[in-house]
Amino acid sequence: MPNAPSSSRVDTEAILNGDRAAFEAMVESETPRLFHIILRYVNDDEAARSLVQETFLQAYKNLDSFRGDSQLTSWVTGIGINLARSWLRKNKRQQPMDEETMERLQPDFRFGRYTGSFEPWDPEQTAERAERKELVHKALDELSDSYREVIVLRDLEERSTKETAELLGISRGAVRVRLHRARQALRSLLDPHFASDFS
Amino acid sequence: MANFLTEWRRRWMLTCQEVNGFLEAYVDGRLDTTTKAQFERHINGCETCRTYLQQYRATIDLVKEADPANDHPPEPSDALVDETLSFLRDHYEPPTNNASS
């Protein structure tokens, strides 16, 4: 369910000139997309609804600080992401992992070969759908925000590497590295639950 | 001879570690034709890397399956838009020229 930014109903010039109706037209067209991205960050329906409202309010109050070096909708999304991050910092139930733990969840190699062996996964046989979702959310919650948000933007939002880099203010290379490390860490966390052969 | 073998190996064989380093680009469809062929040649002959790739892809699929947005229709109801507009109208700064009235 990708959510490509849509700016078809966004009249940036009118909005920046203080046209409230133009701003509200943007609210109407952007609310669904913004709701999904914030929901994917916080995984809490009520919080996401409230953060959407706060995002647009902050955007409205700070329109004069929009510099025009990105689309207005991307700027609004950035505000939403920052609010979602703050919410997570205040409400996240567990300590996100440190870099040392992250490193331990990456595969080990010796002379160019994996040091461990892997059993094929069969998630549909080893866990019910609800249980699979719970395991994945638990694993995602263990990741630090900088890794988790790359998963949200690339794998759930299906944003391009370029868009993700722009939204997070990091290089495309950093997006790719974080995405790979985050997926590998998730793989390690999920492996005990989904390997089809426990022998 | 040694140089020839090194070059031959570089062109034709990737190590498991190199294959791992290409996973993100491979899944994203970004590998050039030559590297993709090297990658797939390795995967076809290496059960460990084949299984790891299967798990790597399954991880992505599981994340997508657990997407919180799956529980919501693609377009959230108009209620959310109305709620947001109503919230904003309650919080807009009053126009400054009305301050004295």
From TrEMBL, chain B:
UniProt superkingdom: Bacteria
Pfam family, one: zf-HC2
Domain Putative zinc-finger, chain residue ranges per copy: 16-50
Protein name: Putative zinc-finger domain-containing protein
UniProt source species: Longimonas halophila
